[in-house]
């Protein structure tokens, strides 16, 4: 018989009948189911990250100019990259991650904005985000959570750029330079004010001296005025008595001698006064120059003084002339008689000159009185001016000291420091990773999924050899539950052996150490007992078709258990598979036991597996009960695998 002939006969055998044809069709569809469902479930898990629950804790209190926490939170919520749930506290977020309510949590701390603006105080620090993960929820969840960090870093870096920080630091340098200039100017001002204070002290002394001298001059001028008044009053009778003088020349000679002596005394007094004023003018000019007045200002003051004393000079000249005349009169007393008539005619002019001299002396006295009053006022004001200058000097010194001290407080980062701070602002966010549980390696991270898969496959291959139900027991009329347990127990025992060997190799050869080895082993045993029960029930109830159904269930659980990416990333139509089939609970329980997660969820997973175990044994019992009746299809099955 040729090979083609044998192939044709085998194909005809396996297609003889409706059920065999359906089996061939199903076998042809197995690769399609694997490829299509697996690719459908994992086509683009990143596009479904918006279904992954994540906790967001915003504690940032912000600053006057920046509220980065709120800005980042708004961007994350509006971006919808994850299913963000805003929670009130970090404790609530941690508890949610621990119990699997959230895959991870991101916390924006209270000082987040303050840290981002800290380079302005020359004490740069990064804003630290807290990323809380738990590999017991999903091993790749931590990897996916890093996308959150990238989003946050991008958002913050856009708001706090290196260029802005560099401009800020350059601004500090400019402020420091300008303040340094101001401090230098304040120092010069303080020095100038100190010099002004010293000069005003000297001016005060000079004014006091000048005031004293002016008072003496005023006294002398008053005496001159009084003397001239007396002279004027005494010379008034001269015109009327000129004739008598002519008659009593000798007597007049004697009187003129007395008058000449008195006139000389007055002339001497007037000359002394004029000489004192000359010396006083010189002292005033010298004092003004010493006080720092310009020569123009000195000459202006001297001109004013010269004009003020001009009447006194004129009066002095007339007094000196009068004294000389009186002297001549006394000398020529003998000639008076001859010139009495002439003297009588000249006497009115003499009286008028004396009157004018008296008027000039009065003006000189009044001018000196005004000068004395002015100098007294100046003497009174210069202490106040001196006190003001002292206060100005003290204030300038305080300004100088304040600016000098302020320069030291203004930041002045050098180029390396400025670049370092700018880089810190350019990379403003640091991430504090807080792993509640963590897989040691990539293999350890995927171990729960592969262990669950291996346990299912181990249970599947057992019934390629084992009979699900004992025909002898069925023929003997044993109870359906007893027959079902009798068919399940051999597979269960072999399944425990499979788990023991698998766990030992994974632990001691592959060197993947669970956080709770005893609990992990016990949970694997429960998984094996449950999976064996499920496959036993399928084989008992559906025969050869049950094997195919076991394979289909394996495919469905591969795509819905969430063994690699979080199960929330699968398409929404596959969600019922995750909630309904046992593999997802098996993987979740193993993760918590292997990584040290919350044991409360392990209890829930174990209860669900026990429910599947009980349901599978119940289905096996029903199948055993039905198979107590023999039918033609049972004696000659249409499909045998």
Structural commentary:
The protein is mainly alpha-helical and 641 residues long. α16 runs antiparallel to α21. The mean pLDDT is 75.
Tell me the domain tally: 3
The number of distinct β-strands equals 5
The order of strands across the largest sheet is: 2-1-3-4-5
**Fraction of helical residues:** over 70%
- The multimeric state of the shown protein is single chain
- Assigned CATH class of the largest domain: Mainly Alpha
Name given to the CATH architecture of the largest domain: Orthogonal Bundle
Overall pLDDT metric: 75
Q: Helices and strands, in N-to-C order?
A: HHEHEHEHEHHHHHHHHEHHHHHHHHH
Structural class: mainly alpha
| End-to-end distance | 25 Å
Report the sheet-strand fraction: 5-15%
Count of helical regions? 22
**Overall 3D shape:** rod-shaped
What is the CA-atom radius of gyration, in angstroms? 62 Å
Biggest beta sheet attributes: 5 strands, mixed
Keywords: Membrane, Transmembrane, Transmembrane helix
Domain ABC-2 type transporter transmembrane: 29-157, 436-620
Subcellular location: Membrane
Transmembrane segments: 442-466, 487-509, 521-541, 548-567, 606-625
Give the SSE map:
Layout lengths: L2 H12 L3 H25 L10 E6 L9 H12 L3 E5 L2 H9 L5 E5 L3 H5 L10 E8 L6 H19 L2 H74 L6 H6 L1 H42 L4 H37 L1 H4 L3 H70 L5 H12 L2 E9 L4 H21 L8 H5 L4 H29 L8 H26 L1 H17 L14 H6 L2 H13 L3 H28 L5 H4 L6
Parallel strand pairs: 1-2, 1-3, 4-5
Antiparallel strand pairs: 3-4
Helix pairs in contact: 2-18, 3-6, 7-9, 7-12, 7-13, 9-10, 10-12, 14-16, 14-17, 14-18, 14-20, 16-17, 16-21, 17-18, 17-20, 17-21, 20-21
